[in-house]
Design brief:
FAD/NAD-bd_sf; FAD/NAD(P)-binding domain; 2 domains; 10 helices; alpha/beta; single chain; globular; 4-stranded parallel sheet; FAD/NAD(P)-binding domain-containing protein; FAD/NAD-binding_dom; 5-stranded parallel sheet; 368 residues
Length: 368
């Protein structure tokens, strides 16, 4: 095992990371040989989120994309619990544990209700796969990247299924440019996906088991299977009664400075989707946050001056939305592409091997 470098005064600084998603897992891994690291997460695993839709049509894919925290956090402490409160020097968990920190990193992303164990999560994918396999018609609500990618995965793998995508916006993928949205709509239609724009579905008044849904325009849709792919709230509700309650903006984001520290705090960082950084919330940007914050923590822990810390510059959008296993639509700052070329970049492996490698794991091996 690699040895920890001697820190200032021979004492390792205590770094607590709350949230084991894209950003939290990477910063914990990056700091584990530079500090006394504790990762607090309600799950025993990290899941690569952009692989989740492929796992619904191919459950074995999840065996590489759902990773035990202990597999990459070999020199840190894992606390499988929810954080429910923080003070200036401690985090309180749902089990009543007080975990002391010198530095705190908040990386709680979005609210997700995932099961605690890896095996339960794999079973969920198996159940969703069976649901898709046995359905003749599938309704997807939400035409952002998640809804579009799920519709494309099902249309590509199950060509005899009737797939209906309902989106309340005037075009798909509103976070990116209209050209990319138009190309995506054409691709979906070419795969016989029925797309209904400017409509919503009243999910509160669906009678269970009837498989009948009514859109805002009064249209009746029959579907054997429903997937709701609308946005999830930011995971900041737990901060409302903590010392950081005034650091959360009206959108539920934590206000950070250019070094990714929570504004007004010298020893508390925030990274990933929970931050108010003005950019589209994407996994690869959360990874960039983690690496910048890790660098800055190393500067501070070694007694370096604050002016040596790195600044994070928001990135202009670079978005790749996979369309099944071969194609994708990509928007780069100067061009928009659709088809096999952007598909080669993302769609085959969905960056799973690359993400595993970044965590120090074999890109190919299935975890057990």
């Amino acid at each position: 095992m690699e040895e920890k470098p001697p820190e200032l005064g021979g004492v390792w600084k205590r770094v607590v990371v709350v949230g084991g998603g894209v950003a939290g897992s990477l910063i914990a891994k990056s700091l584990q040989f530079h500090a006394d690291v504790t990762l607090i997460d309600p799950k025993e695993y990290f899941e690569i989120p952009w692989a989740s839709l492929r796992s619904m049509v191919e459950p074995t894919f999840a065996e590489r994309s759902i990773i035990y925290h202990k597999d990459y956090l070999t020199n840190g402490r894992l606390v499988v619990s929810k954080a429910i409160n923080i003070s200036n020097s401690q985090v309180l968990t749902a089990e009543g544990r007080h975990i002391i920190f010198d530095y705190l990193v908040i990386a709680t992303g979005h609210n997700d209700s995932f099961p605690k164990t890896r095996s339960e999560r794999l079973k969920e994918y198996q159940a969703e796969h069976e649901q898709i396999k046995s359905a003749d018609s599938i309704l997807i609500v939400g035409g952002g990247p998640t809804g579009v990618e799920l519709a494309a995965e099902i249309a590509f793998d199950f060509r005899n299924k009737k797939v209906i995508l309902v989106h309340e916006g005037s075009r798909l993928l509103e976070l990116i440019g209209p050209k990319a949205a138009d190309k995506t709509l054409e691709w979906l239609k070419s795969k016989n996906v029925e797309v209904k724009l400017r409509q919503s579905v009243d999910l509160n008044n669906c009678s269970e088991g009837s498989n009948t849904y009514v859109t805002s325009s009064g249209e009746i849709i029959k579907a054997d299977c429903l997937f709701v792919c609308t946005g999830k709230p930011t995971g900041s509700a737990w901060l409302r009664d903590t010392v950081l309650k005034n650091s959360v903006d009206s959108f539920g984001k934590l206000k950070v400075d250019e070094n990714l520290r929570v504004k007004g705090y010298k020893n508390i960082f925030a990274i990933g989707d929970i931050t108010d950084v003005k950019e589209i919330k994407q996994g690869y940007l959360a990874q960039k946050h983690a690496l910048i914050a890790a660098k800055n923590l190393k500067v501070l822990m070694s007694g370096g001056k604050e002016n040596k810390m790195a600044s994070y510059k928001p990135h202009s959008p670079k978005v790749i939305v996979s369309l099944g296993r071969q194609d994708a639509v990509a928007q780069f700052p100067l061009t928009t592409l659709i088809g096999l070329v952007p598909g080669l970049i993302k769609s085959k492996d969905l960056f799973v091997g690359k993400t595993r490698k970044q965590l120090g794991l074999d890109p190919r091996i299935v975890d057990h």
